[in-house]
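Narrative summary of target 7.
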Amino acid sequence: MRQLIGGAALVAALALAPSLAPAQGIRYGAGVGLLMPLGDYKAADKMGWVAGADVTKWLTGGMLGVRVEGSYSQTSQASGVGAHSSKILGGMAALVYAFGTSADQRRPYVLGGLGCYNIKVDVTGLGSASESKVGFGLGAGLAFKMGAGSTRLFVEGKWTTVSTSGSSTSFVPIRVGLRFGAK
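Modeled conformation, tokenized:
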């Protein structure tokens, strides 16, 4: 039920975003994709899915921006590992640097930031455990202008690591989505 309500809220936000964004100089985006576990996380879990939304405020000149994003992802056990699922809910504040101008058909960008993530592991028959910790990420993406408006299709990947107890939990979310608004 909670996922249904979240999905409905995301659809409503995307429906309203194009009319609100141009006047404010802000871009709103949402996307879905794959979550690739790395290191110890990869040994326990196989590839999963990720969904997320972001808001970027472009500073003067339109090349440097401040982004706030939230995401939710889920993976399940790798072959030969006890039955479990892992869920990651998190948010990050990042600086974004875009190359070229906002009028370009293709606009590459890089980003990096700090955030807070809650990692929850549900073990079948034994219960669950969760932990909220600080994480950071570095990534890159490419935005493609769609038509004459300001809507852009984006593809983005970001190496993310969260300082969990005993070691770190590292992963790469690869998202595809749409962004609306200025810049």
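The beta strands are 26-38, 48-58, 64-76, 84-98, 106-123, 127-145, 152-162, 169-181.
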